[in-house]
Amino acid sequence: MFEYAPAPESRDVVDIKPSYGLFIGGEFTDGTGTPFKTVNPASEEVLSEVASASADDVDRAVRAAREAFGTWSAMPGSERAKYLFRIARIIQERSRELAVLESLDNGKPIRESRDVDLPLVAAHFFYYAGWADKLSYAGYGPSPRPLGVAGQVIPWNFPLLMLAWKIAPALACGNTVVLKPAETTPLTALLFAEICRQADLPPGVVNIVTGAGETGAALVNHPDVDKVAFTGSTEVGRLIARSVAGTRKKVTLELGGKAANIVFDDAALDQAVEGVVNGIFFNQGHVCCAGSRLLVQESIAEELLEALKRRLATLRLGDPLDKNTDIGAINSAAQLAKIRELSDHGELEGAERWSPACALPERGFWFPPTIFTGVAQSHRIAREEVFGPVLSVLTFRTPAEAVEKANNTPYGLSAGVWTEKGSRILWMADRLRAGVVWANTFNRFDPTSPFGGYKESGYGREGGRHGLEAYLDV
Amino acid sequence: MSRTESPARLAVRKTYKLYIGGAFPRSESGRSYAVTSSKGEFLANASRASRKDARDAVAAARKAFGGWSGATPYNRGQILYRIAEMLEGRRAQFAAELADAGTKRPGDVVDAAVDRLVWYAGWSDKIAAVAGSANPVAGPYFNISSPEPTGVVAVVAPDDPLLGLVSVVAPVIVTGNTCVVVASERAPLPAVTLAEVLATSDLPGGVVNILTGSAKEIAPWLAGHMDVNALDLTGVSDPGLAVACEEAAAENLKRVLRPAPADRADDWAADPGTRRLTAFLETKTVWHPTGI
User: Fold this and answer.
1) ipTM above 0.90, yes or no
2) CATH homologous superfamily of domain A260-439?
3) Which CATH code is given to the segment(s) A11-255+454-469?
4) Assign residue A356 a region: left if phi > 0, alpha if psi is -120 to 50, beta otherwise?
5) CB–CB of B145 and A464 under 8 A?
């Protein structure tokens, strides 16, 4: 393994305030809930104190959004588009600042926030900006109407990217939004609020309320919210689906996954190994569509595992701000506990655990990249979403068996297929019950490409022309 | 029946049963209920389906899903058109049953049901072109999104005995879903006769399963069934029942089509559009590499 000198990105580029308020009606205001602290998961250092929105604060935000809805929805689409283009440009201009802040608050490697998250965030706003004055061509009728006020709750794994996926299409379609970022990663959303002001976005069009689960519940259950968009766990998705029963609220849910990454014996092996690594260790495995189940054809299982282990030994875990870092910090103590619990259970159930020699920093939340072999489909690590850098390896003999095993899950978000044979890719893709199928690649996203799940991975699509439907009255 | 029976020859009456997996069983519970005409005259005994019947129907629908969803769209369209043909051929029988049920201008209603089947039949090989897309991603991939059937759909049909039933079943199955449908409780006989039409139209057994009985009793079991993927509550007029079903459906994140608001309760009768098709479709996006 090569030795690298530390190459940390400077954090001087960000200016973190000691405390943050809520962003309602274009102003930062105090919250009436008990403020909470957000920490850097790589060091446990407190970054800032953030206001917590009570039900009253949420109500204020929804009223501000309702008030703004009239003018925003009546504005010509071409004007709404220009606001979104302006936001996209400011994001590009301030991308370094946003990337560093994201890595500080979330723990993800700067290489990923800089090269994946931020370019996708800007691209998403740029993409949906272009739709704002073309909605009558989108296939949803001659003049599709917006829904009204959207209540949006997003997770901590891709804080700014999930914000972009929610806010860009909502605004393009003429809705106004109240968005709640996750309580462990509120900072980039609050910087985004500042960007909205910089772009002169009319007050109330975007409102950001920070807080924990109760704040999210108050938002989702608010009677004047017309649309609920949620990305997060299937467990909370169920609660939301129940709570909107009997209302007229339109709902889209992007929930958990347990994706199969299927490697056939004719696949380009080194390329597949890279794909498997990217599939499960990208963003510390905090990815709903992570390829957490490796299904490898029996005849090449040994060879592939050896190559995989060799590759894992070269992964660099540590300071998220270091440009050489491959694997950053686990986002929170609670998530680390969950990963440990499930991994320990994997051993208890008889699977064999392997991690490369890997020194973990003393402070912060860390978990080494981990592989389980000898995994049975009944094991919890093969059924439940770990949401961490933990890969379960299973084998198969025939394509039909691969399909059977891949689909043997209540989830259906994504799947990967590795083979040199194009017709087999499409044969597999046709049979996999998943919303996104990657062939000879994995964890690839694009604003033009719809994303979302089958079965208990939720419903609705984000991205592309399909992503508009979630925010139109159709 | 309402027609006078000839004293010279005793008519052979039809036993109205359920339609599950292509067969016509009685309810396993052995229960039935008296169906009367709109004037209150006894017409027939219909099966009162039980929870067990509902589960059998779901199992039949699941079993049929692979074959039906894997059939070519052209084939599914042919079969739906065939159903329309068979329905047209029995126009007089349906008109008489609808007249018994109190339907005004029953002949016109049968015509409308036939026309609706023809409308949906044509969608089988067009919906993917309209609801899908090729996505110009920034990378060396051919990226395509196409609609796929959601799976097993549980449907509570509107009270309108024939046109209501056809209007909710046809859009569900034409795209490759299979279904379990609870027919009008008040007037179930046309639904059972429609089952005979389905059974003679080359529609594989299990694609449509028809239960008669109480929606209030059966629908919650279907809504909570873990092997049902979606729920169409169009025919639920009791708001309490609709809420209970939607809550039960949350357990495995079923897609739910809510009943229309009371002032638009006969929404299903309007020009159909594509909304009922897309409500039970999933979008699958495939990233296929390009290269040499």
Assistant:
1) yes
2) Aldehyde Dehydrogenase; Chain A, domain 2 (3.40.309.10)
3) 3.40.605.10
4) beta
5) yes
